[in-house]
Amino acid sequence: MQLLDGTSCSQQIRQEIAKEVDEIKSNGDRPPHLAAILVGNDGASQNYVAMKARDCDEVGFASTVISMKAAISEKELLDKIADLNADNDIDGFIVQLPLPAHIDEHKVILAIDPKKDVDGFCPENVGNMSLGLPTYLSATPNGIMELFRRYKIETEGKHCVVLGRSNIVGTPMAILLSRNTAPGNATVTIAHSRTEGLKELCRSADILIVAIGKTEFVTADMVKEGAVVIDVGQTRVQDSSKKSGFRNVGDVDFESVKNKCSYITYVTGGVGPMTRASLLQNTLKAYQRR
Ligand code: NAP
User: Fold this and answer.
1) Ligand 1, from 121, 202, 234, 251: best to mutate by most atoms within 8 Å of Cβ?
2) Is the entire prediction scored with pTM above 0.90?
3) Domains defined along the chain, listed by start
4) Which tens digit of pLDDT belongs to each residue from 197-235?
5) Which residues line ligand 1 (CB under 6 A)?
6) Contact (Cβ atoms closer than 8 angstroms) between residue 32 and residue 287
7) In what order do the strands lie in the sheet with 261-264?
């Protein structure tokens, strides 16, 4: 079994981006600028946004974090998005999800100018991705494709089962893997909470990508010998032995599954850093497109 090391892969990507930023700056131009809107004080979201800002620092991007109270109205958030859409200094921005329940996530995503939608969530960008046109690819699926690319994992002709069909992970993952590209050209099945015979289906996968948010859901008996297993899941569970008081748990029972796989990601240092690296790639693209 080989562990897919998202930490070192993302480090390589950041170094590549930092080189480009150095060139931009040496030409006397301003660096790319990413903004993030954070609504409320969910600990995990605060942590993700802080890490994204730190990544920006590392590669030489400018970054701005806009923190808004959980109680803000939907209109206040939409007004802030309109400001960022119009702000010439900002190349791209994200609205950290999930949002408080009184705010309609779809409305928010639709309000983002597709040219600045570096998360790749807007219908225009999802549509372009589906058609294979230039666009911002959804950060998490693109990060996983980058792992396949850099580890030279063959996807062509393989049966890939994507567990989970969310708009931000499962669905775009399935689209990217099924396209006529390299990596790509896989035969893809999307599974979800209504799928029957899930265990057998998962066992038929050469590549199993799990994004359901259910801790240690995938066990060894659901995995084919020699399969590639990608664990997207990240759920915070209380753990008094940790200084932070919690630990992240993935959707895959790593200890039982690892010995059956050819490649596997771990909940930390796996998909998460690759997602953040994709966001940087999209921000650089947004800067270059302007
Ligand atoms: P989501 O929007 O809640 O979607 C979950 C999907 O899993 C749904 O399609 C759901 O099916 C399916 N599902 C739930 N229970 C299932 C079951 N028992 N069997 C089969 N399918 C089941 O979640 P998400 O936003 O895609 O995120 C999934 C996980 O990935 C979460 O833990 C999240 O924190 C993590 N995540 C990590 C990163 C990263 O960078 N590492 C990025 C994004 C998300 P239905 O559609 O039928 O309800």
Assistant:
1) 234
2) yes
3) 28-113 (3.40.50.10860), 139-272 (3.40.50.720)
4) 999 999 999 999 999 999 999 999 999 999 999 999 999
5) 140, 163-166, 168-170, 191-195, 198, 211-214, 232-235, 271-272, 275
6) yes
7) 2-3, 261-264, 227-231, 207-210, 159-163, 187-191
